[in-house]
Amino acid sequence: METLKFEKLMLKTAFACMACDGHIDNKEIRLIKRLHEERHAFGDIDISMEINSLLTSLNNDSVLFMKDYFSELSTFKLSEAKELEVIKIAIDTINSDEKVEYSEIKFFKVIRSKLKIKNDQIVAKHPEFETYLEEDIISDSYLNRLQADYFDSHVKLNLNSSISYDLDSIKIKEKK
Q1: Which of 4, 46, 86, 137 registers the highest number of CB atoms within 10 A of its CB?
Q2: Which has the closest alpha carbon to 85: 136, 143, 135, 11?
Q3: Is residue 151 part of a domain?
Q4: Is residue 173 part of a domain?
Q5: Contact yes or no for 109/147 (Cβ under 8 A)
Q6: Cα 141 to Cα 11, 15, 34, 111, 133, distances in angstroms
Q7: How many domains would you assign to the chain?
Q8: Cβ atoms within 10 A of the Cβ of 47, count?
Q9: Considering the domain boundaries, does residue 169 fall inside one?
Q10: Which domain, by its residues, includes 113?
Q11: What is the pTM of this model?
């Protein structure tokens, strides 16, 4: 049961990172499908159904959706290895559409603040993530302002709910 909860947390992390800029790009969807097919990153979850459920929840109340996600992330008991997996999937998702917006970096920093792992442990495993870890969260009040700013300016999201994602029909293109 704990494995299923972690797999759902991983999918929710990827989804939240896709949606945090207010737009879901097809490259982000292809990444999710590839992670599911090649690495079985989300276990036996029906990812099409789960993503559509997450989309409905986000569209119903995006602020509540994101606050619930952050709360779930901070209360979930994760090992260092699992926290590294969360960080990797978040950054991979943010990078997948090949344009990183400041709102996505702020969103990642809030995710990062909910985890216990130290930056040097992250950089030891993923040196390419160092720019995402640049220190600007220096106090609890700054973190609260950062999170409040994200909610004030970026979370009034409403993604196209007339779209239903069927990941089985999405083709994955090989990188050359």
Answers
A1: 86
A2: 11
A3: yes
A4: no
A5: no
A6: 29, 27, 39, 16, 18
A7: 1
A8: 25
A9: no
A10: 2-156
A11: 0.77
